Amino acid sequence: MAMVVLYFLVGMGLLYFGSEWMVRGASGLALSFNIRPVIVGLTVVAFATSAPELVVSLIAAIKGSSGVSLGNILGSNVANLGLVMGLSAVASPLSVEPNLLRREMPFMLMVTFLFWILCMDGRIGRLDGIILVGCLGAFLTMSVLTAKSPTSKIVVRDRLGKKTGIWYLFQLSAGTLGLVAGANWMVRSAILMARALGLSEVFIGLSIVAVGTSLPELATSVVAGIKGESDISIGNVVGSNIFNICLVIGTVGLFHPMTIESRLLRFEFPALVVLSCILFVFSSTGKRLNRLEGLFFVLGFCLFVAISFLFSKGGP
Predict the structure, then answer these.
(1) How open is the CA angle 8-275-152, to the nearest 5 degrees?
(2) Long-range CB contacts (within 8 A, 24+) of 195-202
(3) Alpha-carbon distance 105 to 131, whole Å?
(4) Helices (H) and strands (E) in the chain, counts
(5) How many whole angstroms separate alpha carbon 47 and alpha carbon 27?
(6) Least confident range of 8-17, 160-169, 186-195, 211-220
(7) pLDDT for the residue numbered 43
């Protein structure tokens, strides 16, 4: 069991640093080809925040562990709202940008509801995948049309620094290899842990795997919140939840349709929808998230994991 845990932790480390290197390499190459920074920020950088979830979920689905695959996305989105957003607000109260309330948050609510509805027939198939990927296309189009290029240019340039094209290519290649290897190790060890502990693969995906794949969002949002960059902190979570549903579930549905456990429709899906709605309500009142509201989200995540554990053991 100790070796399984070690493999999981090593895989999680590879996943984290692999995704970081991949986004730096891909963004650097794109900018070196004079692609507009705003496009890089809204596509490559945004994609990278969901790359761990995408690779983990796709590998899990291919291995026949749809429970880990779906549980990872449900758990990651709840972790983004409860753990990432909550800890960011506890560390430093977050101001909410008006544009986020008008566009991105309503879109996140819409795709979250849509995700729940599409799963009610007990499966995510290719048609569902097409619908979700189409929603992602609509979101990216809206984002590009309404984005402000100068701001994105500063953020992307500052993050990358000045390197050569060869270095960016090396980062992209090494990051991609690390991402795939880390995801593979995490999935294999998660399945073994579930069997050894007598827990369902869905619960392992909802909890341990979900927190592991949410580490990039956690690091980015907490640091941004402490630095007073609230728009990055909140926008990172909202954007990641949209990408997780539209890109990850959409892609998995296209390439490897999966079945949905009925119990997820009774608690985990409603919990995700409720937390998403609460975020919108809290953000709309006073246009900020204070420490008390952040603590509420953290406790909400802990309660979510506890109740999911009871369900996985055949509880209520």
Answers:
(1) 75
(2) 196/1, 196/4, 199/309, 199/312, 199/313, 200/67, 200/312, 201/65, 201/67, 201/68, 201/71, 202/67, 202/68, 202/70, 202/71, 202/261, 202/264, 202/312
(3) 19
(4) 18, 4
(5) 11
(6) 160-169
(7) 64
Residue at token pair 């500052």: 158
User: How far apart are the C-alpha atoms of 108 and 212, rounded to whole Å?
Assistant: 22
Whole-structure pTM value: 0.82
Strands (E) located in the chain: 94-95, 123-124, 258-259, 288-289
At residue 151, the pLDDT reads 43
pLDDT-derived band at 162, boundaries 50, 70, 90: low
Query: Which residues lie below 8 Å from residue 114, measured CB to CB, with a gap of 6+?
Result: 131, 132, 135, 245
Identify the pLDDT of residue 150. Answer: 44
**Is 144 in a helix, a strand, or coil?**
helix
The domain at 2-312 falls in which architecture?
Answer: Up-down Bundle (1.20)
Contact criterion met (CB below 8 Å) for 50 and 262:
no
* C-alpha closest to that of 308 among 155, 204, 213: 204
d(CA 267, CA 307): 9
Q: How many CB atoms lie within 10 A of CB 3?
A: 9
Place 188 in a pLDDT band, splitting at 50, 70 and 90.
confident
Phi, psi at 161, each rounded to 5°: 75, -160
Q: Cα–Cα distance between 111 and 126 in angstroms, integer?
A: 17
pLDDT at position 79: 93
Q: How much is the average pLDDT of 100-119?
A: 93
Q: Where are the domains of the chain?
A: 2-312
CA dihedral 223, 228, 233, 234 (to 10 degrees): 160
Is the pLDDT at 276 greater than 90? The verdict is yes
